[in-house]
Amino acid sequence: MADIMDHPLISISIINLNGKNYLKDCLESLGELNYPPDKIEILLVDNGSVDDSVKFIRERFPRVKIIQNSKNNGFAKANNQAAEQAKGQYIAFLNNDTRVDKNWIIELLKPIYENRKVVASGSKVLSFDGSSIDFVGGMINFEGKGFQIDYSKPAEDDNYNIPKFLPFVNGGAMMINRKVFLDTGGFDGDFFAYYEDVDLGWRLWVLGYKVVFAPGSIVYHHHHGTSKIFGEDRLRFLKERNSLYSVFKNYDEANLARAFSGTLASIFNRIFVDTDFDYESYYDLSEPDKKGPAAPDLNIQPGPLSSLAAAKCFYDNLDSLVKKRKWIQENRKRDDKAVFSYFKGQFLAVSPDPGYQKRQIDILRELGIYEVFEKDIKRKILIISSEVLSNEMAGPAIRVWNFAKVLSEHMDVTLAIPNKTDIAEQDFKMVQFFDDGQLKEIIGSNDIILCGGMTFAKYQSIKESGKYLIIDIYDPYNLATLAEYEKETVKKQLEIFESIHNIFNEQFYYGDFFICASERQRDFWLGMLAALNRVNPYSYRQDPTLRKMIDVVPFGLPGSRPVHTKNVLRGKVDGIGKDDFIIIWGGGIYDWFDPVTLVKAMDKVKKKRDDIKLFFMGIKHPNPEVKESDMAGKTIELAKKLELYDKTIFFNFGWVDYEERQNYLLESDIGIITHPMHIETRFSFRTRILDYLWTGLPIVSTKGDSLSDLIEKNDLGITVEDGDASDLADAIIRLAQNREYYDKCVANIEKIAGHYAWDKICGPIIAFCKDPVSSALKERENNEGSAGSKRDTRERFYLLKRFFYHLFHSGPGKTARYLSNHMSRR
Prior knowledge:
The chain is α/β, with parallel strands linked by helices. The protein has 34 helices and 25 strands. 45% of the residues lie in helices and 15% in strands. The N and C termini lie far apart (72 Å).
């Protein structure tokens, strides 16, 4: 796998117009970058300077490639020129009145390299002396105007130190994949200057890409060092016109009409604020025959005139804008509901005038623009976790964490967790709750709830909320308990099983939408839903495929590529050498796994190859409520008995931090998982296997579950029969010795891994949230009630209570007989 430290070629574009006084500081700082000089190309586009800038550069900085224009082509078009002639895989745009930190390039490159969807990153920009904030983030209001967050605040108050997605980044301190930049149209050359970065960022989000703020990349800037040549009226013209262009091009079909009418209304609102004309006296219509006053002096001021001219310019160029809009809309990958999650300051007012702001509020309300942003677009979802979220996370916590990250791109997300977390602030809200009362208050402001089945069972407030309810049943815990408690007495096993069984029955009644991990699981759960009468004419009428009731959302892979940040195994763990062939067991050891056969297999492997080592990533679960596994003790005991402990087999008795796990995986050669063949295995989804796919590790797995089928079908490694130590040892040795087959598995993994990215597998959740459907069971009850069944309300509540009493204490069969007897007595 390619490493960031291979240092791809970076082209740097600098636009210059009579900026000789700034160029020395700028170009000298680029010469001190912490990046190989031979992997940097600098292009300077000169827009017709007359101050000897070009001569100065040729004499002092001969490595800089100069593109000369005879006139000022503007910021946007000139940067496009540089991009077309650049040779780098990435291009960075930098203002000439800046100097950069030595890590400017590498810090911009990191988020683009790590996340396949991120194509552009932007720097933190401070004043030239570092004393105040210039750019640490941006917002876009409904009319396409860009705003800088905390501009001019003292740098000592800067707390923007976490990478985060932004609608746009500073066009004078950013990096972008050069091919994507050119393929998506680059900066709009018609903008000349100002808001071209706002427009580009907006367009990238619409087209399915992501833009991120990289706070570790620092630029120091003389604010308006080269733009002060413009008068205020010209600046206003550019900003008014360019925002009109952005609005027209980038809104989707559903929202363009209202947003554009609001934008035009705001422009005229600003014109009237700045224009003093007594229209009531001049157009006195009370006496039509009376001769009016002399025509007033209508020498309109440059400010309001520039706004009028911007509107005229828009109409003059409408044909060209229609073509641009058509291309963007045809290639749209995100609707406005997703894009506007990043706009934030939608209703920020351009003018400070109180009268202007009041009129803006009034007209936007009447045009329905508040409704667009606050109701039609922004849907609120609460994700509830009963698992601890911290730097050490197990599967259920990892799952809800990634759900929150992906869904926050499409709606307002709140992640409710039972602990005070050490995880940094995110683009979604994290709130802590201790009990059901606190959770009830959090639930109130949300539209949709997503939670696991056991979480649902724990909190009464979820059942009573009346919200759309998504229940995650990716973990068939009702089957896992069969293996987990098989050593208990039959009486104890039955008590536990009945309790779990009742919990599942209850959630199948209340849930509106269910998500599971595989098609095999879905068939299993459909059987349970059918037994509880959730599969019926009403649910069939809603959707004959029943995908609106239950769909597949497997465990996912990070969108970011794994980056090796430090050595953790090779040369670090006593007994593991730098050239050893390392097998990794990702995650913990539980009673439904079979690591004992693996230990026996390693005893056979050692007799043939003493350089093959096995490392177990975790023994102690990060959640203290999870009971310790007997299987872990047996595994360690056998490793010691066979004299493999700390020689061939190694155990981590803690738990690897979630953000550190890639270091263990990237230092390994294959990933492994072994389990016995039983009912839990058939319907399980071994989540940590996906980490093997993420880091490109060929896999050895026992057969029987859906992921072993995936391995076999796509040649991602080797599957073996359960309990066969010899077969397992042979598979390990084959992958260690047959490099051609090993490389084939790696190539196949790279093809399949993309299908499991979190943002792709979350599609069914996103689709449900965009068009939530209430439970067909509830709809049936409502329809029967409205059809005039005329049953007494108290009797219905009594029946419902008795239904659940019998369901939980007697099971579906006796419950059905009870209801039958009750109806026969009527």
